[in-house]
Amino acid sequence: MGRYAQLVIGPAGSGKSTYCDNVRQHCETVGRTVHVANLDPAAESFNYPVAFDLRDLVSLYDVMEELQLGPNGGLLYCMEYLEENLDEWLGEELTGYGEEDYVLFDCPGQIELYSHCTVFRSFVEYLRRDGWSIAAVYCIDCQFVAEPAKFVAGALQATAAMVQLELPHLNVLTKVDLLNEPSKAALEQFLVPEACVLLGELDRSTGPAFRRLNAAVAGLVDEWGLVSFAPLDYSDEESVGDVLAQVDHAIQFGEDAEVKIRDLGMGELGGEDI
Ligand SMILES: Nc1nc2c(ncn2[C@@H]2O[C@H](COP(=O)(O)OP(=O)(O)OP(=O)(O)O)[C@@H](O)[C@H]2O)c(=O)[nH]1
Ligand SMILES: [Mg+2]
C-alpha cells in the first residue's frame, strides 16, 4: 500500500502536459484513476482537469509584474517560492490523498530546474517523507535524439536530471507519431544504444577534434547503462499503456495488490501458491 506519483519533467515543449493528459485518459479507459497537478507557474490552459495548481500559490505573471522580473528570472523566483512553502502549500494540497492515490505532477520546461536548482530535489524529499513512491518521467522530443550530436545533448540532459533527483527514472521519447516509417525504424538504434554503434555514428557525424569526447560519451552509455529511451507513439493504442507499465513497475504500483491476492490464495488453498 502507498501513494504514488510521477514527476513529469523535460525540456520546453517536449510534451509533458500532453503526456499527463494522455496517461489520465488511458487510465480512465482502463478503470483507473490518476490525478494531474500543475507545477508550472507559467501554464495558461490545460486539457486535463487540474487536481491542484501551483498558480494558486504563485503565478509567474504576478511575479513578473510586481517584482519587475523577466520570464526566466520570474520562473526561478516562483520555484524558489514553492521550495520555501513546501510544507504549507504542498502539505495542505496533499491532505485529501490517501492509500493507492496516484498523482502526475506536470512540471515546467526549464531544464536547469532539474539539473542545477534544488527545488525539485526538495519537492521529492518532501513527498518521500510523506510516504509517496515517486518516479521521474523525462519527456524528450524524439527529434532531439535521432541524430548523433543531438543524442549527446539529450542523453546528457536526461542524465543530469537523473543524477540530481535520484529517482527511478524513465526517459520517454515523445512525438514518435510524427515520424514516417523509415525514421521510426532509424530511431530503434537510439532506444537502447549500443556503445560501439553510437561511437561509430558520432565519429561519422563530427570532426576528428571530437573523437575523445565521443569515446567518453559512448563509454558513459556502455559502462553505466544509464541511457535508454521508451518511445511514446500516440498513434499506437498500446504505447501509453506500455510506458505506464514501466513507470508503475519502477514505483511498484500494483505490486502490493498482487502480493495481497497471493496471500489470500495461499490462505484459501491451504498454502499452495497461485
Ligand atoms: N503529434 C504529437 N504532438 C505532440 C506530442 N506531445 C506533444 N505534442 C504537441 O507539442 C506541443 C507542446 O506540447 P506540451 O504537452 O504542451 O509540451 P510541454 O512539455 O508541456 O510544454 P511546456 O509546458 O511549455 O514546457 C503541443 O502542441 C502538443 O500538442 C506527441 O507525442 N505527438
Ligand atoms: Mg506543459
From TrEMBL:
Keywords: GTP-binding, Hydrolase, Nucleotide-binding. It comes from the Eukaryota. InterPro entries: Gpn, Gpn3, P-loop_NTPase. GO terms for molecular function: GTP binding; GTPase activity. Gene3D superfamilies: P-loop containing nucleotide triphosphate hydrolases. Pfam families: ATP_bind_1. Belongs to the GPN-loop GTPase family. PANTHER family: GPN-LOOP GTPASE 3, XPA-BINDING PROTEIN 1-RELATED. Small GTPase required for proper nuclear import of RNA polymerase II and III (RNAPII and RNAPIII). May act at an RNAP assembly step prior to nuclear import. Binds to RNA polymerase II (RNAPII). This is GPN-loop GTPase 3. It comes from Elliptochloris bilobata.
